[in-house]
UniProtKB/TrEMBL annotation:
The protein's name in its UniProt record: Leucine dehydrogenase
Annotated CDD domains: NAD_bind_Leu_Phe_Val_DH
Keyword set includes Glycoprotein: no
One protein family per Pfam: ELFV_dehydrog_N
Entries under SMART domains matching the protein: ELFV_dehydrog (SM00839)
Binding residues for NAD(+): 178-183
A single GO molecular function term of this UniProt record: oxidoreductase activity, acting on the CH-NH2 group of donors, NAD or NADP as acceptor
Active site annotation, chain numbering: 78 (proton donor/acceptor)
Family to which the UniProt record says this protein belongs: Belongs to the Glu/Leu/Phe/Val dehydrogenases family.
Matches recorded under PANTHER family: LEUCINE DEHYDROGENASE, VALINE DEHYDROGENASE
Presence of keyword Nucleotide-binding: yes
Residues annotated as domain Glutamate/phenylalanine/leucine/valine/L-tryptophan dehydrogenase C-terminal: 142-349
Length: 349
Protein backbone atom coordinates (compact mmCIF):
# COMPACT_ATOMS: atom_id res chain seq x y z
CA UNK A 1 0.00 0.00 0.00
CA UNK A 2 2.77 2.43 0.93
CA UNK A 3 4.25 2.00 -2.55
CA UNK A 4 0.94 2.59 -4.34
CA UNK A 5 1.37 5.25 -7.08
CA UNK A 6 -1.51 7.26 -5.55
CA UNK A 7 -0.55 6.71 -1.88
CA UNK A 8 0.78 10.27 -1.49
CA UNK A 9 1.35 10.16 2.28
CA UNK A 10 -2.22 9.26 3.24
CA UNK A 11 -2.72 9.34 7.00
CA UNK A 12 -5.06 6.37 7.06
CA UNK A 13 -6.64 3.84 4.71
CA UNK A 14 -9.20 1.52 6.25
CA UNK A 15 -10.83 -1.49 4.59
CA UNK A 16 -14.26 -2.56 5.83
CA UNK A 17 -15.82 -5.95 5.24
CA UNK A 18 -19.20 -6.58 6.86
CA UNK A 19 -20.21 -10.15 6.16
CA UNK A 20 -23.78 -9.76 7.43
CA UNK A 21 -24.76 -6.95 5.03
CA UNK A 22 -22.21 -7.64 2.31
CA UNK A 23 -20.66 -4.17 2.68
CA UNK A 24 -17.20 -3.89 1.21
CA UNK A 25 -15.82 -0.37 1.53
CA UNK A 26 -12.60 1.59 1.71
CA UNK A 27 -12.25 4.86 3.58
CA UNK A 28 -9.16 6.94 2.87
CA UNK A 29 -8.08 9.85 5.04
CA UNK A 30 -5.48 11.85 3.16
CA UNK A 31 -4.98 14.74 5.56
CA UNK A 32 -6.48 16.09 8.76
CA UNK A 33 -4.09 19.05 8.90
CA UNK A 34 -6.92 21.55 8.34
CA UNK A 35 -9.63 19.67 10.26
CA UNK A 36 -11.59 16.42 10.07
CA UNK A 37 -11.23 14.79 6.65
CA UNK A 38 -14.35 15.64 4.65
CA UNK A 39 -15.40 13.99 1.41
CA UNK A 40 -18.27 12.06 -0.10
CA UNK A 41 -18.98 8.37 -0.41
CA UNK A 42 -19.09 6.79 -3.88
CA UNK A 43 -20.90 3.56 -4.71
CA UNK A 44 -19.51 2.05 -7.88
CA UNK A 45 -19.02 -1.37 -9.46
CA UNK A 46 -15.29 -1.48 -10.10
CA UNK A 47 -14.04 -4.09 -12.58
CA UNK A 48 -11.23 -4.88 -10.13
CA UNK A 49 -11.07 -4.06 -6.37
CA UNK A 50 -7.65 -2.52 -7.02
CA UNK A 51 -9.42 0.14 -9.11
CA UNK A 52 -11.52 1.03 -6.05
CA UNK A 53 -8.35 1.61 -4.03
CA UNK A 54 -6.83 3.81 -6.74
CA UNK A 55 -10.09 5.75 -7.02
CA UNK A 56 -10.46 6.38 -3.30
CA UNK A 57 -6.84 7.50 -2.95
CA UNK A 58 -7.05 9.93 -5.87
CA UNK A 59 -10.40 11.28 -4.69
CA UNK A 60 -9.25 11.64 -1.11
CA UNK A 61 -6.14 13.63 -2.00
CA UNK A 62 -8.32 15.74 -4.29
CA UNK A 63 -10.54 16.54 -1.30
CA UNK A 64 -7.54 17.76 0.71
CA UNK A 65 -6.63 20.10 -2.14
CA UNK A 66 -10.25 21.14 -2.77
CA UNK A 67 -10.97 21.96 0.87
CA UNK A 68 -7.67 23.81 1.25
CA UNK A 69 -8.29 25.94 -1.85
CA UNK A 70 -11.87 26.71 -0.75
CA UNK A 71 -10.59 27.92 2.63
CA UNK A 72 -12.54 25.31 4.60
CA UNK A 73 -11.63 24.04 8.08
CA UNK A 74 -11.58 20.49 6.72
CA UNK A 75 -9.01 17.96 5.67
CA UNK A 76 -9.45 15.53 2.81
CA UNK A 77 -10.91 12.04 2.77
CA UNK A 78 -13.23 9.88 0.71
CA UNK A 79 -15.09 6.59 0.89
CA UNK A 80 -15.94 4.05 -1.77
CA UNK A 81 -18.42 1.22 -1.46
CA UNK A 82 -17.75 -1.61 -3.87
CA UNK A 83 -20.86 -2.36 -5.91
CA UNK A 84 -23.09 -3.73 -7.05
CA UNK A 85 -25.37 -3.54 -4.02
CA UNK A 86 -28.64 -5.46 -4.52
CA UNK A 87 -31.73 -3.29 -3.95
CA UNK A 88 -33.00 -5.52 -1.16
CA UNK A 89 -29.72 -5.10 0.78
CA UNK A 90 -29.23 -1.39 0.21
CA UNK A 91 -30.49 -0.29 3.63
CA UNK A 92 -28.39 -2.90 5.43
CA UNK A 93 -25.29 -1.88 3.46
CA UNK A 94 -25.72 1.80 4.24
CA UNK A 95 -26.40 1.03 7.90
CA UNK A 96 -23.13 -0.93 7.98
CA UNK A 97 -21.40 1.93 6.18
CA UNK A 98 -22.66 4.33 8.86
CA UNK A 99 -21.20 2.06 11.55
CA UNK A 100 -17.91 1.95 9.63
CA UNK A 101 -17.71 5.76 9.51
CA UNK A 102 -18.52 5.89 13.23
CA UNK A 103 -15.51 3.67 14.09
CA UNK A 104 -13.19 6.41 12.82
CA UNK A 105 -14.41 8.67 15.62
CA UNK A 106 -14.78 11.81 13.51
CA UNK A 107 -11.45 11.65 11.65
CA UNK A 108 -13.61 11.26 8.53
CA UNK A 109 -16.96 12.92 7.71
CA UNK A 110 -19.00 11.53 4.84
CA UNK A 111 -21.57 12.90 2.35
CA UNK A 112 -23.01 12.11 -1.12
CA UNK A 113 -21.00 11.22 -4.19
CA UNK A 114 -21.76 9.28 -7.37
CA UNK A 115 -24.21 6.43 -6.81
CA UNK A 116 -25.23 7.54 -3.29
CA UNK A 117 -28.51 9.36 -2.68
CA UNK A 118 -29.59 11.58 0.21
CA UNK A 119 -31.90 8.74 1.36
CA UNK A 120 -28.92 6.32 1.53
CA UNK A 121 -27.21 8.84 3.77
CA UNK A 122 -30.32 9.13 5.95
CA UNK A 123 -29.97 5.39 6.56
CA UNK A 124 -26.27 5.72 7.39
CA UNK A 125 -27.00 8.71 9.64
CA UNK A 126 -28.88 6.46 12.05
CA UNK A 127 -25.50 4.90 12.84
CA UNK A 128 -23.04 7.76 12.74
CA UNK A 129 -22.83 11.41 13.72
CA UNK A 130 -20.03 12.05 11.21
CA UNK A 131 -22.18 12.75 8.20
CA UNK A 132 -23.51 15.74 6.27
CA UNK A 133 -25.53 16.55 3.17
CA UNK A 134 -28.75 15.35 4.77
CA UNK A 135 -30.51 18.13 6.63
CA UNK A 136 -31.47 21.65 5.55
CA UNK A 137 -31.89 24.32 8.21
CA UNK A 138 -32.47 27.97 7.20
CA UNK A 139 -31.43 27.23 3.63
CA UNK A 140 -28.17 25.55 4.68
CA UNK A 141 -27.61 21.85 3.99
CA UNK A 142 -29.17 19.01 2.05
CA UNK A 143 -28.23 17.75 -1.39
CA UNK A 144 -25.01 19.56 -2.40
CA UNK A 145 -25.31 19.03 -6.18
CA UNK A 146 -27.01 22.37 -7.05
CA UNK A 147 -24.33 24.22 -5.08
CA UNK A 148 -21.59 22.29 -6.85
CA UNK A 149 -23.19 23.17 -10.19
CA UNK A 150 -23.31 26.87 -9.26
CA UNK A 151 -19.58 26.92 -8.47
CA UNK A 152 -18.77 24.99 -11.65
CA UNK A 153 -20.76 27.50 -13.67
CA UNK A 154 -18.86 30.42 -12.12
CA UNK A 155 -15.51 28.68 -12.66
CA UNK A 156 -16.45 27.85 -16.24
CA UNK A 157 -17.39 31.48 -16.91
CA UNK A 158 -14.03 32.61 -15.52
CA UNK A 159 -12.17 30.11 -17.67
CA UNK A 160 -14.14 31.18 -20.75
CA UNK A 161 -13.37 34.85 -20.02
CA UNK A 162 -9.70 33.92 -19.69
CA UNK A 163 -9.61 31.90 -22.91
CA UNK A 164 -11.87 33.96 -25.15
CA UNK A 165 -11.42 37.40 -23.61
CA UNK A 166 -15.17 38.01 -23.53
CA UNK A 167 -17.47 39.07 -20.73
CA UNK A 168 -20.07 36.29 -20.81
CA UNK A 169 -20.85 32.84 -22.17
CA UNK A 170 -23.99 33.74 -24.17
CA UNK A 171 -23.77 32.12 -27.59
CA UNK A 172 -20.96 29.72 -26.67
CA UNK A 173 -21.44 26.04 -27.51
CA UNK A 174 -20.85 23.93 -24.42
CA UNK A 175 -20.79 20.13 -24.18
CA UNK A 176 -21.91 18.63 -20.86
CA UNK A 177 -20.89 15.00 -20.27
CA UNK A 178 -23.15 13.46 -17.61
CA UNK A 179 -26.55 14.83 -16.61
CA UNK A 180 -26.75 13.77 -12.98
CA UNK A 181 -27.09 15.97 -9.91
CA UNK A 182 -24.27 18.24 -11.03
CA UNK A 183 -24.54 18.04 -14.82
CA UNK A 184 -28.29 18.66 -15.09
CA UNK A 185 -28.13 21.65 -12.72
CA UNK A 186 -25.13 22.98 -14.61
CA UNK A 187 -26.95 22.58 -17.93
CA UNK A 188 -29.82 24.69 -16.58
CA UNK A 189 -27.48 27.46 -15.42
CA UNK A 190 -25.61 27.50 -18.74
CA UNK A 191 -28.85 27.52 -20.71
CA UNK A 192 -30.15 30.43 -18.59
CA UNK A 193 -26.96 32.32 -19.49
CA UNK A 194 -27.55 31.86 -23.20
CA UNK A 195 -25.19 28.97 -24.00
CA UNK A 196 -26.07 26.37 -26.63
CA UNK A 197 -25.80 22.88 -25.17
CA UNK A 198 -24.58 19.54 -26.46
CA UNK A 199 -25.19 16.74 -23.95
CA UNK A 200 -24.57 13.05 -23.35
CA UNK A 201 -25.57 10.61 -20.64
CA UNK A 202 -25.84 6.85 -20.35
CA UNK A 203 -29.47 7.46 -19.43
CA UNK A 204 -31.61 8.23 -22.47
CA UNK A 205 -34.28 9.71 -20.17
CA UNK A 206 -31.85 12.34 -18.88
CA UNK A 207 -30.81 13.25 -22.41
CA UNK A 208 -34.48 13.60 -23.35
CA UNK A 209 -35.05 15.83 -20.34
CA UNK A 210 -32.16 18.12 -21.37
CA UNK A 211 -33.49 18.18 -24.93
CA UNK A 212 -36.93 19.24 -23.71
CA UNK A 213 -35.86 21.75 -21.09
CA UNK A 214 -32.77 23.30 -22.68
CA UNK A 215 -33.12 22.58 -26.41
CA UNK A 216 -29.90 20.58 -26.05
CA UNK A 217 -28.38 18.57 -28.90
CA UNK A 218 -27.57 14.96 -28.02
CA UNK A 219 -24.07 13.58 -28.66
CA UNK A 220 -22.81 9.99 -28.39
CA UNK A 221 -21.42 9.20 -24.91
CA UNK A 222 -18.06 8.07 -26.26
CA UNK A 223 -17.37 11.16 -28.37
CA UNK A 224 -19.15 14.01 -26.55
CA UNK A 225 -15.83 15.46 -25.36
CA UNK A 226 -14.66 15.68 -28.97
CA UNK A 227 -17.75 17.62 -30.11
CA UNK A 228 -17.42 20.77 -32.15
CA UNK A 229 -17.92 23.13 -29.18
CA UNK A 230 -16.15 26.00 -27.41
CA UNK A 231 -16.16 24.43 -23.94
CA UNK A 232 -16.39 20.86 -22.63
CA UNK A 233 -17.73 20.24 -19.14
CA UNK A 234 -17.01 16.70 -17.89
CA UNK A 235 -19.65 16.00 -15.22
CA UNK A 236 -19.67 12.19 -15.06
CA UNK A 237 -16.70 10.16 -13.85
CA UNK A 238 -12.99 10.94 -13.60
CA UNK A 239 -9.99 10.19 -15.85
CA UNK A 240 -11.95 11.09 -18.99
CA UNK A 241 -9.27 13.46 -20.29
CA UNK A 242 -6.64 10.94 -21.30
CA UNK A 243 -3.60 11.98 -23.36
CA UNK A 244 -5.41 10.69 -26.45
CA UNK A 245 -8.57 12.75 -25.71
CA UNK A 246 -6.43 15.78 -24.83
CA UNK A 247 -4.81 15.58 -28.27
CA UNK A 248 -8.19 15.36 -30.04
CA UNK A 249 -10.35 17.88 -28.16
CA UNK A 250 -11.34 20.80 -30.36
CA UNK A 251 -12.88 22.93 -27.56
CA UNK A 252 -10.63 25.70 -26.19
CA UNK A 253 -11.78 25.26 -22.58
CA UNK A 254 -12.23 22.25 -20.27
CA UNK A 255 -14.26 23.14 -17.17
CA UNK A 256 -16.58 20.66 -15.47
CA UNK A 257 -17.75 19.19 -12.20
CA UNK A 258 -16.27 15.68 -12.29
CA UNK A 259 -13.46 14.92 -9.87
CA UNK A 260 -10.04 13.91 -11.27
CA UNK A 261 -10.87 14.69 -14.88
CA UNK A 262 -7.27 14.35 -16.05
CA UNK A 263 -6.14 10.73 -16.24
CA UNK A 264 -2.56 11.80 -15.52
CA UNK A 265 -0.14 14.71 -15.63
CA UNK A 266 0.61 14.03 -19.31
CA UNK A 267 -3.00 14.82 -20.22
CA UNK A 268 -2.73 18.21 -18.46
CA UNK A 269 0.55 18.93 -20.22
CA UNK A 270 -0.97 18.17 -23.64
CA UNK A 271 -3.92 20.51 -22.97
CA UNK A 272 -1.45 23.20 -21.94
CA UNK A 273 0.80 22.66 -24.98
CA UNK A 274 -2.25 22.93 -27.25
CA UNK A 275 -3.32 26.21 -25.63
CA UNK A 276 -6.50 24.69 -24.14
CA UNK A 277 -7.56 26.31 -20.87
CA UNK A 278 -8.22 23.75 -18.13
CA UNK A 279 -10.07 24.97 -15.02
CA UNK A 280 -8.71 22.62 -12.31
CA UNK A 281 -11.63 20.43 -11.26
CA UNK A 282 -11.24 20.70 -7.52
CA UNK A 283 -11.00 24.48 -7.71
CA UNK A 284 -14.34 24.85 -9.49
CA UNK A 285 -16.36 21.96 -8.03
CA UNK A 286 -16.02 23.01 -4.37
CA UNK A 287 -19.54 24.44 -4.04
CA UNK A 288 -20.93 21.17 -2.71
CA UNK A 289 -18.33 20.65 -0.01
CA UNK A 290 -18.73 24.30 1.03
CA UNK A 291 -22.39 23.69 1.90
CA UNK A 292 -21.69 20.22 3.31
CA UNK A 293 -19.06 21.73 5.61
CA UNK A 294 -21.43 24.48 6.75
CA UNK A 295 -24.15 21.92 7.49
CA UNK A 296 -21.70 19.79 9.46
CA UNK A 297 -20.31 22.57 11.64
CA UNK A 298 -23.41 24.82 11.51
CA UNK A 299 -20.94 27.70 11.35
CA UNK A 300 -22.12 29.73 8.35
CA UNK A 301 -25.39 31.25 7.20
CA UNK A 302 -26.68 31.14 3.66
CA UNK A 303 -25.29 34.57 2.71
CA UNK A 304 -21.80 33.54 3.86
CA UNK A 305 -22.05 30.30 1.88
CA UNK A 306 -23.19 32.11 -1.25
CA UNK A 307 -20.23 34.49 -0.92
CA UNK A 308 -17.85 31.52 -0.54
CA UNK A 309 -19.27 29.91 -3.67
CA UNK A 310 -19.12 33.22 -5.55
CA UNK A 311 -15.40 33.35 -4.70
CA UNK A 312 -14.85 30.30 -6.96
CA UNK A 313 -15.01 32.57 -10.03
CA UNK A 314 -12.17 34.92 -9.02
CA UNK A 315 -10.17 32.03 -7.55
CA UNK A 316 -10.28 30.22 -10.89
CA UNK A 317 -9.07 33.35 -12.65
CA UNK A 318 -6.27 33.67 -10.08
CA UNK A 319 -5.08 30.10 -10.70
CA UNK A 320 -5.23 30.47 -14.49
CA UNK A 321 -3.31 33.74 -14.40
CA UNK A 322 -0.68 32.29 -12.03
CA UNK A 323 -0.27 29.30 -14.36
CA UNK A 324 0.17 31.60 -17.36
CA UNK A 325 2.84 33.57 -15.48
CA UNK A 326 4.64 30.36 -14.47
CA UNK A 327 4.36 28.85 -17.94
CA UNK A 328 3.00 25.58 -16.60
CA UNK A 329 -0.27 23.60 -16.74
CA UNK A 330 -2.98 25.05 -14.48
CA UNK A 331 -3.35 21.75 -12.61
CA UNK A 332 0.31 21.91 -11.58
CA UNK A 333 -0.13 25.48 -10.33
CA UNK A 334 -3.30 24.64 -8.40
CA UNK A 335 -1.66 21.60 -6.77
CA UNK A 336 1.25 23.73 -5.61
CA UNK A 337 -1.07 26.40 -4.19
CA UNK A 338 -3.06 23.73 -2.32
CA UNK A 339 0.08 22.03 -0.98
CA UNK A 340 1.37 25.40 0.27
CA UNK A 341 -1.86 25.93 2.23
CA UNK A 342 -1.62 22.42 3.73
CA UNK A 343 2.05 22.86 4.61
CA UNK A 344 1.25 26.08 6.49
CA UNK A 345 -1.69 24.57 8.42
CA UNK A 346 -1.39 24.79 12.20
CA UNK A 347 -2.64 21.22 12.65
CA UNK A 348 -0.02 19.81 10.29
CA UNK A 349 1.52 16.62 11.57
P1 LIG B 1 -24.64 11.46 -10.43
O1 LIG B 1 -24.48 10.03 -10.09
O2 LIG B 1 -25.83 12.22 -9.95
O3 LIG B 1 -24.60 11.66 -12.03
C1 LIG B 1 -23.62 11.13 -12.85
C2 LIG B 1 -24.26 11.07 -14.24
O4 LIG B 1 -23.25 10.72 -15.19
C3 LIG B 1 -25.37 10.04 -14.37
O5 LIG B 1 -26.49 10.64 -14.99
C4 LIG B 1 -24.74 8.94 -15.24
O6 LIG B 1 -25.69 8.26 -16.03
C5 LIG B 1 -23.80 9.77 -16.08
N1 LIG B 1 -22.68 9.01 -16.66
C6 LIG B 1 -21.92 8.05 -16.10
N2 LIG B 1 -20.98 7.62 -16.98
C7 LIG B 1 -21.17 8.35 -18.11
C8 LIG B 1 -20.53 8.40 -19.36
N3 LIG B 1 -19.49 7.60 -19.65
N4 LIG B 1 -20.96 9.27 -20.29
C9 LIG B 1 -22.00 10.09 -20.03
N5 LIG B 1 -22.67 10.09 -18.85
C10 LIG B 1 -22.25 9.23 -17.91
O7 LIG B 1 -23.28 12.17 -9.94
P2 LIG B 1 -23.06 13.70 -9.60
O8 LIG B 1 -23.30 13.90 -8.16
O9 LIG B 1 -23.71 14.54 -10.62
O10 LIG B 1 -21.46 13.79 -9.79
C11 LIG B 1 -20.89 13.89 -11.08
C12 LIG B 1 -19.39 14.14 -10.92
O11 LIG B 1 -19.18 15.33 -10.17
C13 LIG B 1 -18.62 13.04 -10.19
O12 LIG B 1 -17.32 12.94 -10.73
C14 LIG B 1 -18.54 13.56 -8.77
O13 LIG B 1 -17.44 13.01 -8.06
C15 LIG B 1 -18.34 15.03 -9.04
N6 LIG B 1 -18.75 15.89 -7.93
C16 LIG B 1 -20.01 15.85 -7.45
C17 LIG B 1 -20.37 16.71 -6.43
C18 LIG B 1 -21.77 16.78 -5.90
O14 LIG B 1 -22.10 17.72 -5.17
N7 LIG B 1 -22.64 15.85 -6.25
C19 LIG B 1 -19.41 17.58 -5.87
C20 LIG B 1 -18.14 17.60 -6.41
C21 LIG B 1 -17.80 16.74 -7.44
Amino acid sequence: MFEHPSFDAHERIVFFNDAASGLKAVIAVHSTALGPAGGGCRLWSYPDPADAVTDVLRLSRGMSYKNAMAGLPMGGGKAVILGPVPDDRRDEVFAAFGRAVETLGGAYMTAEDVGVSPSDLQTAARHTAYISGIETLDGVGGNPSPFTAKGVCLGLESAARFAFDRSDIAGLRIAVQGLGGVGMNLARLLYDRGATLVVADLSEARVEEARDRFAAEAAPVDTVLLSDVDVVAPCALGAVITPDVARRITARVVAGGANNQLSDAAAGQILFDRGITYAPDYVINAGGIIIVCAEYFRNADRATIDAMIDAIGPRTAQVLQAARRSGEPSGVTADRMARDILAAAPGRG
